Amino acid sequence: MPSQNLALRLLGLLGALLLIKVSIAIVGSYWLYFPPTFEQGFLEGRAQTFVGLYRLAFYGHIVVGPICMAVGTVLLTPWSRRTAKLHRWLGRLQLLLILLVLSPSGMIMAWQSYAGWIAGFGFLSLSVATTWCALQGWRSVLVRRYDDHARWMLRCYILLCSAIVLRIIGGATEFMHWDAEASYRVAAWGSWVVPLMVFEVIERQWHLCRRAG
């Protein structure tokens, strides 16, 4: 058992380091967007559509997204949960950023998604799911169902991290020389559906073990 716990901690540490590395790479590419460059990166070939509401949504999304992930990471720490006042204020901040900026901007961008409507619908569904989880987490804490609150907000955090998983899938499919549009459609869904399904399976097994024990 001690060796298994050590292995799980090491896997968790490696996973965290991978997430940090990819997050730094994502934010490090922001120099392409201030001012926007249409010859490389996410905006490649988007000069004609990068206007009006889409432009506003894009900048709102890339600025608020990392903030939400950073706040979510802090909220998951035991230290944050022991500091009730800080936890509440950070939770309210995250909820407002998701509801007012992150999810609406994601929905707007989904309509002009690369690789067509399949990818677009995947990102639209992601925005809806993120909003739903955040609202359910807020509703749970209002009625003092703290275990439910923790589960809903963990789901929300997993969905927020889909941006990182998206890049990991994109890098893997590029390495394997997959068709760019087909791989983007896979990533648009797989970046959040697969991690969420893994969480649900693990959580269900944990509850079954608790009942059996």
Structure, described:
It contains eight helices and no strands. Helix 2 (52-76) crosses helix 6 (146-160), helix 5 (116-142) runs antiparallel to helix 6 and helix 7 crosses helix 8. The two termini are 16 Å apart. It is mostly helical and 213 residues long. It has one domain (50-212).
Largest sheet: none
* Low-confidence sequence ranges: none
Provide the helix percentage.
Answer: over 70%
How many beta-strand runs?
0
Tally of alpha and pi helices: 8
Spatial extent as radius of gyration: 18 Å
Regarding quaternary structure, how should these chains be classified? Answer: single chain
Average of pLDDT = 86
- Silhouette: globular
Distance between the termini: 16 Å
Which class of secondary structure composition applies to the elements? mainly alpha
Percent strand: under 5%
Q: How many domain regions?
A: 1
Order of helices and strands: HHHHHHHH
